[in-house]
Amino acid sequence: MSAPSRVLTVAGSDSGGGAGIQADLKTMLALGVHGMSVITAVTAQNSLGVQGAWPLPVEAVRAQYRSVVDDIGVQAVKTGMLASAELVEAVAELLGGTDAPAVVDPVGVSKHGDSLLTASALDSVRTKLLPVATVATPNLDEVAQLTGVHVESEDDLRRAAAAVLAYGPRWVVIKGGHLAGDAVDLLTDGSEEHWLRAPRHDNRHTHGTGCTLASAIASELAKGRPVPEAVTTAKEYVTGAIAAGFALGGGIGPVDHGWALRRR
């Protein structure tokens, strides 16, 4: 039997299983691709927040990446929590030398408001990581952190997209999930626009949403879909996962990565 499409996630571990590497691999399995991982940091994390985070050495991250890419190969790469400027720059260099689309989720703050990126790493994200991204997927807090643009309404999404595109990604998805009303995202490359709308589900259990969307986009790109189709399909998957999100622990539970598998 031929192997499925291969996707590599470069991200931190979430011990609670709702976000990070764990969410990425669950998403990849659900979407029918072979998920592989480069762990950049270990976190102590649960439904209440992040209790601790320990970045791995740059040489450990580089060795994991080379081990996978040089032998198995990849058809898409997704990045998540990179924690430090040194890790951001090392991963950007690795992505720049890999012939595969890269989906960059510029993770800065957790769902609970915990910082996952040092202040010194922000400039490295802007100048090193975003320029090698096929698709960047910032939420509104990350847009403000990276560009200084504060989105208050749907009308501000174009301005936010232009500010992120100025750093060099080919496409950007500005995730408008924090706005009131329907969940509206804007996908654009600066000339072509796609407005992606979904009903807002009254469910507080949304831990892992950003990781899941970026991994779903990478999975669809690995299958050979063009960016607009990959992002649209990923949005549909995430919307279903949010609707099926469930309580876990005493805080914010995760989205349900397996919802589509059970529906089949």
TrEMBL record:
CDD domains: HMPP_kinase (cd01169). Residues 14-256 form the Pyridoxamine kinase/Phosphomethylpyrimidine kinase domain. GO terms for biological process: thiamine biosynthetic process; thiamine diphosphate biosynthetic process. Keywords: ATP-binding, Kinase, Nucleotide-binding, Thiamine biosynthesis, Transferase. The keyword Chloroplast does not apply. Pfam families: Phos_pyr_kin. Pathway: Cofactor biosynthesis; thiamine diphosphate biosynthesis; 4-amino-2-methyl-5-diphosphomethylpyrimidine from 5-amino-1-(5-phospho-D-ribosyl)imidazole: step 3/3. It comes from the Bacteria. It is an enzyme of class 2 (transferase). GO terms for molecular function: ATP binding; hydroxymethylpyrimidine kinase activity; phosphomethylpyrimidine kinase activity. GO terms for cellular component: cytosol. Its EC number is 2.7.1.49, 2.7.4.7. It catalyses: 4-amino-2-methyl-5-(phosphooxymethyl)pyrimidine + ATP = 4-amino-2-methyl-5-(diphosphooxymethyl)pyrimidine + ADP; 4-amino-5-hydroxymethyl-2-methylpyrimidine + ATP = 4-amino-2-methyl-5-(phosphooxymethyl)pyrimidine + ADP + H(+). Catalyzes the phosphorylation of hydroxymethylpyrimidine phosphate (HMP-P) to HMP-PP, and of HMP to HMP-P. PANTHER family: HYDROXYMETHYLPYRIMIDINE_PHOSPHOMETHYLPYRIMIDINE KINASE THI20-RELATED (PTHR20858:SF17), PHOSPHOMETHYLPYRIMIDINE KINASE (PTHR20858). This is Bifunctional hydroxymethylpyrimidine kinase/phosphomethylpyrimidine kinase. It comes from Streptomyces cupreus. The lineage of its organism: Bacteria, Bacillati, Actinomycetota, Actinomycetes, Kitasatosporales.
